[in-house]
Design goal:
Chain A: InterPro entries: PaaB, PaaB_sf. Chain A: One of its GO terms (molecular function) is phenylacetyl-CoA 1,2-epoxidase activity. Chain A: Its EC number is 1.14.13.149. Chain A: This is 1,2-phenylacetyl-CoA epoxidase subunit B. The structure holds 2 protein chains of 2 kinds. By secondary structure, chain A is of the alpha+beta class. Chain A has a domain of about 55 residues: Phenylacetic acid degradation B (Ubiquitin-like (UB roll)), CATH 3.10.20.520. In chain A, about 20% of the residues lie in helices and about 25% in strands. Chain A is built from 2 helices and 3 strands. In chain A, strands 2-1-3 form a 3-stranded antiparallel β-sheet, covered by helices on one side. The longest helix of chain A has 12 residues. Chain B starts with a helix and ends in a 6-residue tail after the last helix. By secondary structure, chain B is mainly α. Chain B contains 10 helices and no strands. In chain B, helix 1 runs antiparallel to helix 2, helix 2 packs antiparallel against helix 6 and helix 5 packs antiparallel against helix 6. The chains are: A alpha+beta, B mainly alpha. At the A-B interface, strand 2 and helix 1 of A face helix 2 and helix 6 of B.
Amino acid sequence: MDNKNHWSLYEVFVRSKQGLSHRHVGSLRASDDEVALQNARDVYTRRNEGVSIWVVKSELITSSQPDEKPEFFDPSLDKVYRHPTFYNIPDGIEHM
Amino acid sequence: MNQTVLAQFLLHVGDSQLILSHRLAEWCGHAPELELDIALANIGLDLLGQARTALSLAGEIEGLGRDEDKLAYFRTEREYRNLLLCEQPNGDFAQTMVRQWLMDLYHLELFTALSQSQQADVAAFAVKSLKEVKYHLRFSTTWMERLSLGTAEAHEKTQQGLNQLWRFTAELFEQNADEQQLVAQGILPDFAPLKAAWAAQVQTELQRFGLSLPDTGAYRSGAKQGLHTEYLGFILAELQYMQRSYPNMAW
């Protein structure tokens, strides 16, 4: 524990019965990794929501910054040729 | 005769779960962290579910027409059969964890053995409870480790909790003469080896935690005779108030 008065923040990911991948469900505080896992079990899977849990310290996540949005995301907006929208889909193919 | 003895035994188990669950519920809104608040309530609700099964089963076997609610709400202090350990006040978080850890180890031994019972309902009750108890023990062990091996203050408080509660542990696997009859029929396990296994486990773990057993000659018991400490009456007053004031009310 880095600070005796404050527990670390953890992000919680739960894989549900139907789901293939773990989904971010929220965050919580815990004194260490094992406690984080137990807390996640108690806080986020009490009503039979999950079959697997990941917890990770929030500080270990590297995230994109809001003010980088223009160079990060905008370039993909105006190039329609990046999207596979120019194919003719044969009759009889459903759910595309 | 046998039916009465088995019903009384199930009341002993179920009452312990019910009272312990009530104690854990008292932490609601008061635990050191929100996450612990939820965890303690969760364990309490598990125990409440187990108590419901035990009391319902006791009522059926007893055959006097008392269901789980009748048994929970309309018995007096002297008719309650819970372990004295369960009714002890929460104290601080460390003391609550010591009590929980001692009880979880007890439940683990008890339900592992009871799951072999020749009485099918009793075995089913034990199997179902065992799954929950294994998680409870994981939780309480985690906290026993962190408190006893953490800061000096936490260690001291955990030791104090143990000193406070140890005298109520002697009756944990008490088996009376009537119950011996059920042991012969394979309905109940012999408690002597369970007690030995429990004590060995407690010793080993306490060594790992750097905690020591208090010297005490003054063990308290009375669960199976309905002789309680001063605390049970207050718990029942709270637990039974509604049904005593407005019998058979529902919402």
